[in-house]
Each structure stands twice: as C-alpha cells, then as structure tokens.
TrEMBL record:
NCBIfam families: PRK02551.1 (NF002714). Signal peptide: none annotated. Residues 4-150 form the Flavodoxin-like domain. This is NrdI-like protein. It holds the Pfam family Flavodoxin_NdrI.
Amino acid sequence: MQPIRILFSSISGNTRGFIQKLSTYANDQQAINPSAPLIEAVEISDLTNFTDETTPFFVCVPTYLSGGNGIDNGVKELMTNTLGEYITYNRNAQLVQGIIGSGNRNFNEQYVLTARRYAHATNTAVVADYELRGTSQDVERIYSILTKLA
C-alpha cells in the first residue's frame, strides 16, 4: 500500500509533534500488519521550494488567526500562509484528499477555522480535527480515518 501523504505547517511545534506521533503509530501498525500504510509527512515552511505535487495528499493545519470571529466580522490568516499558497500552487489543490485541523476549543467558533477555510478553498472537507498536540486516542482515530480515505 502507498504511504499516506500529509503536507503540514507547524508554528509552535504542536502540529509537528502530532504528525510525529501519527507516523510512529503508523510504523507500529505496519509492524503488526505489513499492509498497514505508513505516513509520508512533508513540512511546508517559508523555506520550501514550491513544486507540482503528483500524488494525492492530506493537509494538516493549525489555527492561527487575528481579529474577528471568522463568521460575521472577518478574520486574517496568520503564519500558515505559505502552506495555503503551496496548496494552491498550479494544480496542487486538485490532489487534496481532505483537511485535518488543529486548534484550541477555548476559541469557540474559531476552533479549526483555518482548516475549514482550507477545505472551502480546495473544495474538500475537514476529515478530522484534534486539540493542541492531540491525544493517543486522536492519533488512533485520525489514522483510521486516513486509511479509509486514502
């Protein structure tokens, strides 16, 4: 089975930490069942050279916003702009299989708002979400979702 490809952005390290846990979990699953897919994760940052993606991928994005509530009085994306630009580079958006969002539930309507905005921009769906660095239950749940959708 092909690995599950995930493009992600990590500002504070929470998303990177979650992706590392997800990758470790996938490795453990493959040790039990050789047909279980691995995770191929690529961090997109300001240093990333834009390229044309050739295989389907998921996007994992944290929520960093400024101002507004994102519903009726505006919002400004912060920090994840490079990932958004990479996804919309040439035809990359056509290969997005779904969005995984992270955030903090304390921010109510803004929880995973960046993921919802990315899903809208790529005409896909938010397929999973988790809070902050995610729990081991989040890792298992999201891996299961991704293996069914990949």
